[in-house]
C-alpha cells in the first residue's frame, strides 16, 4: 500500500471518489461498484487493497446526502425495510470478507466481472411495465421480512467478498424480486449504505493487510461526499426508464473495466 501520497494519488483519489459518488447518487447504489475497478487500476494497489479501501471509504455516511435528496422528492424508505436488510447485511459482509482472504487477486477480479454480469442480466429480464407501475408507498408487503433479510445477506456477502458495498445487489434484487420501483429501491439502497454495515468486513481486511492507506481514504471520501449529492440531485429529475438504462450501462462498463484489469494482470 501507499506509504505517502503524491499529487497524482491525491488528485486520483479525489476524482475516483467524485465519479463513484456521482454514480452512486444517480443510480442509488453503493459507490463500490465504481470504486473497486478504478482503484484497482492505481499503481501499488492490488485487488484486495482496492476492496479494502472501497469498503473503508463507505463506512462514513457518504450516501446520506443522496438519500435525503430522494426523500425530499417523495421516494422514501421504510425504517423496517432498512432494518431487515441491514440485519442480513451484517452477517453476509463478515462471511464474504472471510472468504475473500482465501482467494487470489485474479480470482476475485473474475468473480467481480461475473457478479456484475449477473446483475446486468437481472436488470434486462425485469419487465419495464412492472417497474413503472410499482407503488411508491414507503412500507413493505406482509411476509417480506424474510425476503428482505435474504436480500441483505446476498448484498452483504457481495460487499465483503468483492468490496463493492452491496448497493448494486440491493437495488437489483428489490426491483426484480420484490417489485419495488426503481426510485424507491435506490432510496432504500442509499439508506442502507449510509449505515456502517461493512465494518465487520473492513476489520477482516485491515487485520490481514496490517493497516489501511489513510491518506488515500481521506481523498476518496471527500470525493464521495461531493459526487453523491450531485448524482442524487440529477436522479430525482429523471424517469424510471432512463434510470434503469443508466444502471445497466454502469454495470456493463464496470464489468468491462474489471475484465480488462484481470486480463492484463493474467
Overview of this structure, please?
The chain contains 13 helices and no strands. It has helices at 7-27, 32-40, 47-57, 64-72, 79-100, 105-125, 128-133, 145-162, 167-176, 182-193, 199-209, 214-235, 240-265. The protein starts with 6 loop residues before the first helix and ends with a helix. The chain is globular, with a radius of gyration of 17 Å.
Task: List the topology elements.
Elements: H1 7-27, H2 32-40, H3 47-57, H4 64-72, H5 79-100, H6 105-125, H7 128-133, H8 145-162, H9 167-176, H10 182-193, H11 199-209, H12 214-235, H13 240-265
Helix pairs in contact: 1-2, 1-12, 2-3, 2-13, 3-11, 3-12, 4-10, 4-12, 5-8, 5-10, 5-11, 6-9, 6-13, 8-9, 9-10
Amino acid at each position: 500500500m501507499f506509504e505517502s501520497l503524491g499529487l497524482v494519488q491525491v488528485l486520483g483519489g479525489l476524482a475516483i471518489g467524485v465519479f463513484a459518488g456521482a454514480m452512486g447518487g444517480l443510480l442509488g447504489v453503493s459507490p463500490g461498484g465504481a470504486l473497486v475497478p478504478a482503484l484497482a487500476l492505481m499503481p501499488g494497489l492490488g485487488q484486495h487493497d482496492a476492496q479494502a479501501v472501497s469498503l473503508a471509504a463507505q463506512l462514513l455516511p457518504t450516501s446520506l446526502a443522496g438519500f435525503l435528496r430522494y426523500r425530499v422528492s417523495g421516494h422514501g424508505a421504510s425504517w423496517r425495510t432498512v432494518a431487515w436488510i441491514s440485519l442480513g447485511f451484517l452477517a453476509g459482509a463478515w462471511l464474504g470478507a472471510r472468504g475473500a482472504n482465501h482467494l487470489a487477486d485474479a480470482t476475485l477480479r473474475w468473480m467481480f466481472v461475473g457478479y456484475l454480469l449477473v446483475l446486468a442480466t437481472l436488470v434486462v429480464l425485469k419487465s419495464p411495465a412492472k417497474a413503472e407501475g410499482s407503488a411508491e408507498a414507503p412500507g413493505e408487503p406482509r411476509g417480506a421480512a424474510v425476503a428482505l433479510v435474504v436480500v441483505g445477506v446476498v448484498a452483504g456477502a457481495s460487499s465483503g467478498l468483492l468490496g463493492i458495498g452491496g448497493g448494486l445487489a440491493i437495488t437489483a434484487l428489490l426491483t426484480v424480486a420484490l417489485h419495488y420501483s426503481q426510485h424507491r429501491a435506490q432510496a432504500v439502497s442509499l439508506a442502507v449504505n449510509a449505515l456502517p454495515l461493512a465494518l465487520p468486513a473492513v476489520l477482516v481486511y485491515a487485520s490481514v493487510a496490517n493497516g489501511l492507506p489513510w491518506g488515500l481514504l481521506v481523498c476518496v471520501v471527500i470525493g464521495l461526499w461531493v459526487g453523491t449529492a450531485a448524482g442524487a440531485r440529477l436522479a430525482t429529475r429523471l424517469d424510471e426508464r432512463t434510470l434503469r438504462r443508466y444502471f445497466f450501462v454502469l454495470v456493463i462498463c464496470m464489468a468491462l473495466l474489471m475484465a480488462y484489469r484481470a486480463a492484463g494482470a493474467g
